[in-house]
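User: Can you help me understand a structure? I only have the sequence.
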Amino acid sequence: MQSGRAVSPARGISGSAILPRRAALTEGGARDRIAEREQCSAGKEMPMFYLFLTAAVLVAADQLIKLWVVRTVAVTGAVPLVPGLLDVTYLQNTGAAWSVLQRHTGVLTVVSLIVILIIIWALAARKIKGGVGRWSLAVLLGGAVGNLIDRIRLGYVVDMFRTLFISFPVFNFADICVTLGGIVFCVYVIFFWNRSESNGNDPAHR
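Assistant: Let's start by predicting it. Here is the structure, written out as tokens:
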């Protein structure tokens, strides 16, 4: 006759089996949550409102700067901005950015309007998947609209920034937006287009 308490076989088996099972379920749930977050991040669409708001803010900044120049600098003369490097002056430009294509306001107005409509369509229709591409187009759009307003309203574009250390065409805030937005978009198309457009994601979404 054996003494002592008998151990239930069922109890021993359940204790050793439940722990690995719980660990597997926990690990699987963690993987599912990580995969779900990655899918949400990759598929997250950038709100169009912020892109067009950015363009509108840039247009407003451009027009306010030009209004100040017309009302102040055009009367008092050039104002130093960075002594020896940059000042603010007043120039009526009938050409495009950086004073090219002078006296072609009508042609430039039509071309600008077409480019603006294409950019608006590309953004609104989400033809550009990458965030960098979208933001660069929003900046370009703001600059293009700013100069278009001048051409329609005045028949010329108000330029004001003049470099003093090199001979360079007088330019304005809208020109800066067009140039920066255009350069960044070109870099995006050349180096990141295939990856971003195929995946619907780029570093700007992260």
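Now, to help you interpret it: The longest helix spans residues 9-43. The longest strand covers residues 86-93. Let me know which part you'd like to focus on.
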